[in-house]
Amino acid sequence: MTDADIAQLRTEFQQELARVASESDLQAIRDKYLGRKSGAVTALMKAVSTAPADLKPVLGKLANELKQELEALLAEKKALLGASKAPVGAVDISLPGRTPPIGHQHPLTIVREQIEGIFTRMGYQVLEGPEVEDDYHNFEALNMPAEHPARDMQDTLYLDGEIPGQGRPATLLRTHTSPMQIRYMETHQPPVRIIVPGKVYRRDDLDLTHTPMFQQVEGLVVGERITLADLKGTLTTFLHELFENRTQVLFRPSFFPYTEPSVEVFIGCVFCGAKGCPVCKRTGWLEILGSGMVHPRVFEAVGYDPERYTGFAFGVGIERVALLKYGVDDIRLFYENDLRFLEQFPL
After folding, report:
1. Could you give the CA distance from residue 257 to residue 248 in angstroms, rounded to a whole number?
2. Which of 31, 141, 194, 211 could form a disulfide with 301 if both were Cys (CB 3.0 to 4.6 A apart)?
C-alpha cells in the first residue's frame, strides 16, 4: 500500500458521495468504505500491518486521517439529507400547481340565465317574488274568482289559514310567478316591462314530463297602444335567439283566464326539423309557451285604466325549454344530481 493508493481511495469516495441522493445510498457508501468486515478503509488499515517497518508510521497516520475524513464527510452529507427532507404536512413549493376541478352550472341555471339575458337586452327588468302567496294575488287578481274552473288546472298546494266565509286556505305555494306581476303593478304605474323567474308548485306526480316543483319565467308589458303584434314580434325574436334564427314559430288561439285574446306559441320540432316524428306526434310542432293580451279585469284589480292601457303577458317553463334545447327526454334528470348527466353541459 502506498500514499497513492490512499489518494485514489479518497477520490473514488468523493465521486460516489457526490451522487448520493438518499439515506439508503449514503448507508451503502458507508458500508462499502467503512464496513467492519469488507470496508475499503478497513482493508487499508489491515494492510498497514504488512507494510515495511519504516513506512508503517506514515501509512498508519494517513489511513487514520482518511478514515476520520470519510466519517466527517458522511456525517455532513447525512445532515444535508435530513435538512432537505420536508417535515410532515409541509408544502413543497417546487412542485407544479394542481389545477382545481371546476364546477359546472346546472343546465336549468344555464337556460334561466340565457332567458334573462335575452329579455334584459330588450329592456326588461328582472324581478323575484315570494314563493308562498295569498289567494288574492295568485288567483283573484288574475281574474280567477273562487269558483273559476281554471283553478282546477292549477292543482294547488294549499297551506294554512282560511278565507272568511269560504272555508278554504288563504295561503298557498304559488302555482305561477304571475302574482309578482300583480304586486308590481299595485305599486308602479305604466309603462311596465318585467320578467319574473322563479320556482312554482303544482300537485303533479313525478314522471317523464311532470314534477311538483318546476321553474317558470313570466313576462309582462303594459303601456299605451300595446298590441298583439308587439307580443308576436317580441316572442318571435325571443325564440329565434333562444334556439336559432331559422326556428319556425306558430301562434294558435287558446284560453287563459288573465289574458284575452290568448295564444299558445309553438316552435318547429327540434327533433325532426318540423317534418313530423313521435315526439311532436307527427305534427311538426312543439308547444313552448302560453301568452296573450292582459285581460281588462286584471288592470281594474290593480287600478290601471283599461281604456288607456293595454299590455301582453307570457309564461315559459325553464324545464320545458331545457328538454327541447338539449334533447333530454326525462325531466327527472334535472333534479337527481347525477354528475355524469350534469357534467355534459357547457360552463
Report:
1. 27
2. 141
